[in-house]
Amino acid sequence: MTLLEDAPPKPLPLPRTPETLDEELRRMLPNGALDLPVPGRGALRQRWRALAGFGRRDLALGRLAEGHTDAIAILAEAGLAAEPLALYGVWASKSGGTGSELHNGRLSGVTRFCSGLTTLDRALVAAGDQLVEVDLSARGVRRHPGAWQSLGMDASDSGDVVFEDVPVLREVGPPGWYVARRGFVLGGTGVAAVWLGGAAGVVDSVCVSLRGKADEHQLAHLGALHVALRGSEELLTATASAIERAADPGSQNDTCRASVERTAREVVDLAPRITGPGPLCRDRRFAQQVADLQVFIRQHHGERDLAALGRAVLAEGRA
Known about the structure:
Structural class: alpha+beta
Shape: globular
Order of helices and strands: HHHEEEEEEEEHHHHHHH
Number of strands: 8
Strand order of the largest sheet: 1-4-5-8
CATH class of the largest domain: Mainly Alpha
CATH architecture of the largest domain: Up-down Bundle
């Protein structure tokens, strides 16, 4: 099973807004489209293939779908059931020294980069070293969508949340469990599958723009992007297979994320060079795809993550 389907999925119709994405997710939820296998239980390729498909269709949709499915997997790993037909997210950023804290069963603080800010029903929120579930209709949940200024991923409905003494529904796992569990690393590689799908979606649009009029330089760049996409896809597939065999993937998950991030950066660089300025200026979907991809892959921390990977390689004593 390959992660990238041979036929590109049908993209979402324009205009694409937080409201239209919410409608699509709520259509997908009851028909089982968001019911993915829990990571590490024998069907990881199937899970990552679905995540790549979401991203290829629309990166903002993929971001929200991945957040929901990650939350459901986390609850399952903790032996807890999700609220039926509720849309979930995982809000765990501690960017810039922000973050929320838990005191006597109540949550207070600021959490950034909360996707699905105004549309989700529930969220799993990092509170210090504890993960808690919050009903987002509760009093004291203050949303600040204006904190998100980027045009890239603007439809992901992201922003800041201020929690003001909000009662939590339940604690999810003991303190420290969220980042120590096996699914934490696998979830991060699932995000890379969404990136890969988003990169493939940009290349799909490039192919449409080139039909019947490609020169040799454009074709060379397109070939280079194809090689990069397939290389990252094969690495993800091999890593999923290793995990499904119960083998220790070592640093392979970090390698997967770095490989996909590098591929996506190559797509962001080469795709506009292939098409020229026309599609960037006159094709809203293509321009949005490039902008979304450029923003979303910054969940990878660049040289900092590569340095950590290099440290692991040096410790293993082999490339």
